[in-house]
Amino acid sequence: MSKLGLDYVDLYLLHWPAVEKTDGKEWRSVNREKWRALEKLYKEGRVRSIGVSNFLPHHLEALFTDAEVKPMVNQIEIHPGFSQQATVDFCWDNNIIPQAWSSIAKGAVLENETLVSIASKLSKTPAQISLRWILQNRAVPLPRSQRPERMVENASIFDFTISDEDMEALDNIPQCGGACANPDEREEF
Q1: Strands 140-141, 9-14: pairing kind
Q2: Ranges of H-type helices in the chain
Q3: Of 36, 34, 33, 44, whose CA–CA distance to 8 is shortest?
Q4: Contact, 175 vs 108, CB < 8 A?
């Protein structure tokens, strides 16, 4: 048993893909070696689920070539104004659960006029609209809060649906966020 009293970890993620810009032509093998370490932990039963974070479809495809176990989760930035719908669709097509981190774009979407208007119409908060939009776009939101009242608010997103018309309006919010839009272009992480 570990010092934390745990025999296993529920989810272990490879947080950032190796890419050509920072890792050269060996980026695929760097990802492959890191992934093999996670597969080993999974096969030993020390980790219940393994996944990746910030991987785009081409990073995942490269990983699939040698993976014995496919990632179970891809944790990516998703919120109104940054849907990453192609990556979400790719994940589902490959039985990978897309998890949305930064579900309110570090607060940037909370004052968006469209989001505020829809929230008012549905008697919900802008944060709840953002979380529900993520769900309706087939991703799993990962809200975070230290305040119990916000935790309750974040969990109260299953008693309403955003209409197709309002979903389209939210889909068309100008891009905001995207701190990790394209790992291939980042100088460093």
Answers
A1: unpaired
A2: 20-23, 27-43, 57-64, 85-93, 113-122, 126-136, 148-155, 164-171
A3: 44
A4: no
* Torsion angle, alpha carbons of 40, 42, 47, 52, to 10: 90
User: How many CB atoms are located within 10 Å of the residue 110 CB?
Assistant: 16
Query: Does the domain at residues 9-183 carry the CATH identifier 3.20.20.100?
Result: yes
First CA to last CA distance, the chain: 33
CB neighbours (10 Å) of residue 61?
13
pLDDT in tens, the chain (189 residues): 455 566 667 899 999 898 888 888 999 999 999 999 999 999 999 999 999 999 999 999 999 998 999 999 999 999 998 899 999 999 999 999 999 988 888 878 888 999 999 999 999 999 999 999 999 999 999 887 888 888 898 899 999 999 999 999 999 988 776 666 677 776 655
- Domain-wise residue ranges, the chain: 9-183
Per the CB < 8 A criterion, the answer to whether 36 and 25 are in contact is: no
